[in-house]
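Lab notebook: predicted structure, single chain.

Context: the supervisor wants predicted structures on file for every construct in the current expression panel, including those that have not yet been purified. This is the next one on the list. No modifications to the sequence; it matches the entry in the shared construct table.
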Amino acid sequence: MRVNRLITGAINVLEAGPVHDLLEEGIDALASRREAGLQPPDDYLPPPSDIVGWEYVRSIMRLLLRVKSHAHGGAIVIVPNDSPDGINIKHSLAYDRLGEAIVARTSTWIGRDISSNAVHDEDLDVDSPTVPADAYRDQVTTRGDLDDSDAELDATLWFVSLLTRVDGAVVINQEL
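Prediction complete. Output recorded below exactly as produced.
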């Protein structure tokens, strides 16, 4: 609120601008890891690299909200490499699960989307009272896989946010 006026149209610095530009290296690294997995059809939209970017930004937002909810004044410092100059790290922990969870969630989201599209595909006989069993099974299985990926990502975000309660600041590289 600014003198009896509500400010609207706030800019999300994680989705666009110079802060997002600094995160692009990490997003690209995770996108290249994701590309080694499930390959969607060539006409698949949006591009998988965009989905990785959305998950990356969404995960950072969720992490920051978790840190804030602890109300202990913790901080997340994202650095461009594994050994940042000028930062005295007291306790080092190699933990790449957050980046892996983002990659896994992106891949399972794409898999679920592809299997869901197969069930609702225009090539299926609309007059048939049934859906092919393989397509339905794939859709149900990928829904469960997506739930598992969501739980994994949630747990890793929770763990990293809890580290800020102990040490005050957590230093992570761009690949999370």
